[in-house]
Design brief:
four-stranded antiparallel β-sheet; 112 residues
Length: 112
C-alpha cells in the first residue's frame, strides 16, 4: 500500500517562499508520475505541477516561473518550491502518485 506524507506548508507573507515535500512509501515511486494539486475553499482541485518518471515537468499557467517541481528518487520524495507567493496561492496542497494515491494535504496560507 502506498502512503504519501506531505510537509512544509504554513503561513507566509506575499512575496515569500515555501518548499513542500512529499515522501512516498513503497517501490513504485521511481516509475510513477508525481503531481501537486491544490484546492482553495469553494473551488475545484486543480493541478499545480507534475513530473514524470523521466523528469519532464508541466505547470499550471498561474504558477509558471514561480513554482518548481523536482524529485529525488533515492529519497522517494517529490518537492514543490514555491517562490513569489500570492494570496491567490492559498489552498490545501495535495501530493499524488499517478493520480491514484493521495496524501492528506498541507495548508498553505499567503497573507500579510
Amino acid at each position: 500500500q502506498v502512503q504519501l506524507v506531505e510537509s512544509g506548508g504554513g503561513l507566509v507573507q506575499p512575496g515569500g517562499s515555501l518548499r513542500l515535500s512529499c515522501a512516498a512509501s513503497g517501490s513504485m515511486f521511481r516509475i510513477s508520475f508525481m503531481g501537486w494539486y491544490r484546492q482553495a475553499p469553494g473551488k475545484q482541485r486543480e493541478l499545480v505541477a507534475g513530473i514524470t518518471s523521466g523528469g519532464s515537468t508541466n505547470y499550471a499557467d498561474s504558477v509558471k516561473g514561480r513554482f518548481t517541481i523536482s524529485r529525488d528518487n533515492a529519497k522517494n520524495t517529490v518537492y514543490l518550491q514555491m517562490n513569489s507567493l500570492r494570496p491567490e496561492d492559498t489552498a490545501v496542497y495535495y501530493c499524488t502518485m499517478s493520480n491514484n494515491y493521495w496524501g492528506q494535504g498541507t495548508q498553505v496560507t499567503v497573507s500579510s
